[in-house]
Amino acid sequence: MKFKLGYNRLLVIGIVMGLLAAAAQAFFQVQPPVANGISFLGHPRELLNWIANRLFETNWPVTRAFLLYPPLTVIGVLIGSFIAAGRNKELKLRPGPVRKKVLAAIFGFLVANFGLLWGACDMRTALLVSYGSVLAVIALVSIIIGVMLAGFYMQYSAKKGIGQ
Amino acid sequence: MIPAIATLVVGLLIGYMGQRSTFCTISGIRDLILRRNTYRFRGLVGIIIGGAIGFTLFKFIGGDVPSFPLGMDIVSPGILIATIVGGLGLGFWSVMAEGCPYRQHVMAGEGRVGAMFYLLGFYVGIAYFFMVTVKWLDLLLSIMR
Fold first, then answer.
1. Of A26, A106, A127, the CB nearest to B58
2. A20, A83, B111, B144: least CB-packed within 10 angstroms?
3. How far, in Å, CA of B48 to CA of B51, rounded?
4. Measured at the alpha carbon of residue A117, what is the angle toward residues A150 and B124, in degrees to the nearest 5?
5. What does the angle CA B12 – CA B7 – CA B62 come to, to the nearest 5 degrees?
């Protein structure tokens, strides 16, 4: 499969993702909560909580849709990416994007905790904006400000010669 | 069973598309702000457009789209503060990690070692949130009341 959509390729992929997420909710019971067709904090959280509840008899929250079977979005993404990379001869162990492994893990830890504080990843935030949520608009603006602050910090640290 | 299979199929499709493109909403915002480059930002715009079209259309043809549009859903000042702090942190640390959680999953699938360690920290972070952070939040909210 090749995408030859030029400069608007990501716009089209984004629209397809939005439609897939809406269809998952509207016709395949991937709710509640609403606008949860694609979520890279909600679904990993549900998957982890589901596994923890089964293995360790914890009582971490799992939504009604995933009581019997967990969401498999992240498994699908890992397999889909693996297949795409394999088909295009791009599958090999490489460093990065963050080269220091401990630092990468710390960033992952922080993203999970801040993301769960708001309750959604950036993609679900976008879906919630399209669902008409005022709170999601505030979250999206906060994310944009967070990105700006990080960008300015990186420019500052590059000028001062502070490495990652 | 249906929701699990639906999420698996959606995951496979967006995983494949994500590997063949450089789709990342956080990088899109970063590129727009720092480089004045709109290429990746169009992905974020696309999701919002696609979601809006999808939810509207599917509600119209009888799909299960409750409470659409949501409108004013700020239920308490505590939720608002958590949203702002959470959003700021999510944006900031995702830029430092060079990609949103979705992008990190895609990169881990294609063999990027840093993304695999990111995911290790990410899943430990989720467990930590439910074991520790939630209790602190409950304490804070009870003080605010």
1. A26
2. B144
3. 5
4. 85
5. 120
Residue B71 carries which DSSP code? Answer: B
CB-based contacts of A97-102 (< 8 A; 24+ apart in sequence): A97/B97, A97/B98, A97/B99, A97/B107, A97/B112, A97/B114, A97/B115, A98/A164, A98/B96, A98/B97, A98/B98, A98/B114, A98/B117, A98/B118, A99/A164, A99/B114, A100/A164, A100/B114, A101/B113, A101/B114, A101/B117, A102/B117
Q: Which amino acid is at B52?
A: A
Does the predicted interface ipTM exceed a cut of 0.90? yes
Which pLDDT tens digits describe chain A residue by residue (164 residues)?
Answer: 554 667 788 999 999 999 999 999 999 988 888 888 899 999 999 999 999 999 988 888 888 888 889 999 999 999 999 999 999 888 888 887 888 899 999 999 999 999 999 988 999 999 999 999 999 999 999 999 999 999 989 888 888 776 55
Q: State pTM to two decimals.
A: 0.92
Angle made by CA atoms A14, A103, A141, in degrees to the nearest 5:
40
- Chain A residues whose beta carbon lies within 8 Å of the beta carbon of residue B64: 25-27, 29, 31
